[in-house]
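My current task is to audit a protein record that another person submitted. My question to you is simply how this chain folds and whether the tokens agree. This is what I was given:
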Amino acid sequence: MKESADISEKLLKQTKAISAVVDVLFNAWKKGKWVFVIGNGGSAGTATHFVGDLIKTTIEHPHEKGLRAIALADNVPMISAAVNDWGWHEAYTGILNTYWSKGSIVIAFSVHGGAGKDKAGAWSQNLLKALQFAKDNGGVAVGISGFDGGAMKDIADISVVVPAHSTPLVESYHVVLFHLITFRLKELIRNASGQKGKKRR
């Protein structure tokens, strides 16, 4: 309980970065830009959940427009073909090459931010490459990580790091963060759309 309270208190010091994520996403909504959300393992599930919220939860009625967002790992045949032909490190960048337009956003979720390695080598190099792709091609790179932020903290244009050295805590706080971002976006979109106080018919 105390550890969670400490994490929450430290995250308050990153309010500027969290607000910056909201700002770039709101700008993407206004300009109709694409938001690509990526992650590996549990963070791929986080990416899927966040995309669902960006598309649906940010709006109140089905005739309104949410954000154009896609979780790249969701298409299993596509991602497995990319891994098979190009290797895991280039899987996301290879797919981004097809979807990409200037001004798009890549949001990467990672517990370790690319720090550490296992049997397959260094962790999350595909995420780091995708973030660099965004920066090199006129987009915005957002990294949401944990532990010490790893290489992702330095590559991303906007970085939010959950200050915890526990995978379950980092993953849990990633959900808290994207819910905060989602519901702030919902307020901004509602106000911009003139929907404040409008009742469902």
Confidence is low (pLDDT under 50) at residues 196-201.
